[in-house]
Amino acid sequence: MLTGLKSLVRKATSLFASPQAQTYPIIIPRSDHSLSRQNLSPNAVKVLYRLNKAGYDAYLVGGCVRDHLIGIDPKDFDVVTNATPEEVHTIFSNSRLIGRRFKLVHVTFGREIIEVSTFRASAAQEDNDDENTSTTSLKGKDSARSAHGIVLRDNVYGNIEEDAERRDFTFNALYYNVKDFSIHDYCGGLKDIENKQIRIIGDARQRYQEDPVRMLRAIRFAGKLGFELEAKTAAPIKEMAHLLDHIPPARLFEEVLKLLGSGNGIETFVLLRQYGLFRYLFPDAEALLQSGWKRDDINPEAFILQGLKNTDDRIQSGKTTAPYFLYAVLLWPSVALRHEEFQAQGMPATPALHQAANMVLDNQVASTAIPRRFSTPMREIWDMQFRLPKRYGKRAFLLLEHPRFRAGFDFLLIRELSGTKLDGLGDWWEAFQHGSENQQRELIKNIDARSNDKEGPKKRRPRRRRKSNGNSTSASTLSETSDE
Ligand code: ATP
Ligand code: MG
């Protein structure tokens, strides 16, 4: 696909080489690019035509144009227009207005959502450090910044040139015009695609200050596309990473899922750590990785990498993945460490595990929110790691019925693959799941035959008799048994 792009970029090279930035936009006609209407979502095309018909300008923009040019199937289609959100909403009965930070419209076609936003100008900066927020009004619309300079609301509408300038990276400011099937390049994105470069639009420091999530997006695209960060785009990241502390945990949660749960988790994880960003997403995990803590039965880094590989492989082969699984992987080493600490303080294994899980989750939600519908299955997966070895009697049959069995089992395999020795437990469960009832009973019998304290039925210790003090045995002494 990049080869298809070469000719058009060559044509444009003299423009790119020119110091006259005002030569933008470069307009690439249909004959000179590889993006065809046939590759686009028919619903997105419908939205473009309807907006055009109602007298508005409308373009496809962002990831869908970028990914098509690179040769990747885009995951969603974003439309941008000079119609206001309210006007868009009036045109499409199947739409709803959403967002506060960015007001936009979702046009719904069955399960597909086409996101339609209005051209925006960048929010004007105000010198107002004493206030928690500053608000400015332009063209009847509003914007606001926090005391840290982070843009809280950005609903200042503008024209297409202004819209391009406030986008994050040059390759995300390419606009596809369905009227004549041309692509409009406002910031040199095509050349950057050609050179496999991620380049922020404008001054990197200022753009990260306005929205620190752009640092994460830079890393996400580097992991996803295998592109390099251009020097000025990369330079301030380590120093400015701490600004992520001011981003709401719910937004960071969503970003983490996109970063690590989109099929390039390993590369992205490595880059996040390299740029000093991971610690603002997973402070406990980063501290533990830095400390070099390991145990015979857990190697945190190998385990996390193995878990990410599992997610990447599943996505690349078209299988589904659960966000709670990914989070359970990332936090498991921290849970294992806390579990050990609580047990060392004398707490029995099961309450120690619950206490460890509570502590790790409490710490984590200060960085990235974890909705309860995810934290509950995470706990179940962790819990299952202590239940899967206990297979005797009816337990194996009951565990198999557990709604989280499959996730718990997959998690166990990741532990084994990362070097944890579990005495063939994964193979045993593999055989048990697929065996006939007779084979299952045989498998359980084989465990019983070599039962030990960990796996076999609990044995009753012989009763200890109290030293006789001359009295006859009382009822209480007779009932004193321990099955621990
Ligand atoms: P993908 O959807 O493949 O993850 P994308 O680039 O389309 O990538 P979206 O989050 O869908 O990402 O955003 C759509 C477009 O909106 C981007 O391409 C970019 O132009 C703009 N955009 C998104 N987030 C930001 C941001 N934080 N700052 C500036 N522009 C942004
Ligand atoms: Mg997108």
UniProtKB/TrEMBL annotation:
Catalytic activity, as annotated: RNA(n) + ATP = RNA(n)-3'-adenine ribonucleotide + diphosphate
EC top class, as a word: transferase
Keywords on record: ATP-binding, mRNA processing, Nucleotide-binding, RNA-binding, Transcription, Transferase
GO molecular function: ATP binding; poly(A) RNA polymerase activity; RNA binding
EC number, as in UniProt: 2.7.7.19
Pfam families reported in the protein's UniProt record: PolyA_pol, PolyA_pol_arg_C, PolyA_pol_RNAbd
Gene3D superfamilies linked to this entry: Beta Polymerase, domain 2, cca-adding enzyme, domain 2
Residue ranges of domain tRNA nucleotidyltransferase/poly(A) polymerase RNA and SrmB- binding in the record: 226-287
Residue ranges with Basic residues bias: 457-468
Domain of life: Bacteria
Catalytic residues in the record: 76, 78, 168
GO biological process: mRNA processing; polyadenylation-dependent RNA catabolic process
Region (Disordered): 444-484
Signal peptide, first to last residue: none
Sequence ranges of Basic and acidic residues compositional bias: 444-456
Polymerase A arginine-rich C-terminal domain location: 345-466
UniProt-listed PANTHER family: POLYNUCLEOTIDE ADENYLYLTRANSFERASE FAMILY PROTEIN
Purpose: Adds poly(A) tail to the 3' end of many RNAs, which usually targets these RNAs for decay. Plays a significant role in the global control of gene expression, through influencing the rate of transcript degradation, and in the general RNA quality control.
Family: Belongs to the tRNA nucleotidyltransferase/poly(A) polymerase family.
NCBIfam families assigned: pcnB
Name of this protein: Poly(A) polymerase I
Lineage: Bacteria, Pseudomonadati, Pseudomonadota, Gammaproteobacteria, Oceanospirillales
Underlying gene: pcnB
